[in-house]
Amino acid sequence: MMQGGKKRPDSPILDWSAADALHLPFLAETFDAVVSGFLLRNVIDVPKALGEQYRVLRPGGRVVVLDTTRPTKNAFTPFIKFHLHILIPFLGRMIAGSGEAYTYLPESTEAFLQAEQLAAYLIQAGFKEVGFHRLMFGTVAIHWGRK
Fold this sequence. Notes:
With 147 residues, the protein is an alpha+beta fold. The protein has helices spanning 2-7, 46-56, 77-96, 100-111, 115-124; strands at residues 31-37, 57-68, 128-135, 140-146.
C-alpha cells in the first residue's frame, strides 16, 4: 500500500516509514496524531501496539484507528456471515484472481476484538475521550482517543 501511495501523482510529500508496530522507531511525544487502518487485527499484541502509539503522541494528541471488528449478533447476522464467507471470497476470485486473500479478511474479522474490547484497550493504554463508531453492519469500526 505504501508503494502505491508513493506513486500517486497527487500525493502530498510525506516521509514514508515502515516500522514494527510494537517497537516504533520514534522518540516519545513526537506526533500530534497517529492514524492506523486495518493494522491492529494483524499485530500479536494489541495493548503493546496501542502503548507505542500512546508513547509517540504529544500530550493532547489524537489516535484514530480504523479496523475490522467482530460484529454483534443481530437480525443481520446471517446476511453478514454470507457476505463475509461467501460473497467477499467470490468477488476476490472474480476481480483479483485470488480468493485466498479474501478468505483471510473474514477469518481475521471474526477472530478480532469487538469494538467495546478495543475501546477498553485504548483506555488501558492511557487514552481519554475514547469512543467508536461502527460501520458496514458492524464489521468495521472507527475508534478514537486523546492523550
